[in-house]
Amino acid sequence: MDKKEKLENLNKKWFEECTCELKKTATQAVPGDGNPNAEIVFIGEAPGRSEDKEGRPFVGAAGKFLDEMLEEINLKREDIYITNIVKYRPPNNRDPSPEEKASCREWLLEELKIISPKLIIFLGRHAMNNFFPELQISNAHGKLLIKAFKGMSPKYFFPLYHPAAALYDGSMRDILMADFRKIPKVLEKIENP
């Protein structure tokens, strides 16, 4: 069974088994999407309105900005895999609660196990704090983090501000673009330490 089939089976399993309270208010689950053999996995916070409607992550305004940034470093959606820490849209796009994050955590960890990327890129503080609760995004963004987690092969992490933050605050756009342009060098560093 290839990674694509494993991910499809994983999603089918979690559509049934996920106990996240957000299931009650969301239109549908929004599983990860993209290349199952990707070297890079992007992890966001939670689906928004557009994602809830389409059933795919990062298809709204933040997703369009992400596509622009990927193009800037010669990558396309087909080259990466993208997912969220929570698979259902929180009402009114509020932050997901610790309980909601916890109920979707195994789903995310199993996705990462199947894909086994070289690099995990956090889009925003919620994604980063899911793995590094002690860090602040304002200090950690644009820096390579190296940490081994039990039962997980990837150990290289790269936090970025969330693309939506740059849409709301224009001054963040340049910071996010500068951090994003570091990604090819970070990958190179991982491959040739």
From TrEMBL:
Catalyses which reaction(s): Hydrolyzes single-stranded DNA or mismatched double-stranded DNA and polynucleotides, releasing free uracil
Boundaries of every Uracil-DNA glycosylase-like domain copy: 31-181
A GO BP entry: DNA repair
GO molecular function terms noted in the UniProt entry: 4 iron, 4 sulfur cluster binding; metal ion binding; uracil DNA N-glycosylase activity
Name of the top EC class for this enzyme: hydrolase
Parts forming coiled coils: none
Organism for this UniProt entry: Candidatus Nomurabacteria bacterium GW2011_GWD2_39_12
Signal peptide boundaries: none
InterPro entries: UDG_Type-4/5, Ura-DNA_glyco_family4, Uracil-DNA_glycosylase-like, Uracil-DNA_glycosylase-like_sf
Record keywords: 4Fe-4S, DNA damage, DNA repair, Hydrolase, Iron, Iron-sulfur, Metal-binding
Entry EC number(s): 3.2.2.27
Keyword RNA-binding: no
Cell cycle in keyword set: no
Protein name: Type-4 uracil-DNA glycosylase
Source taxon at top rank: Bacteria
Record family assignment: Belongs to the uracil-DNA glycosylase (UDG) superfamily. Type 4 (UDGa) family.
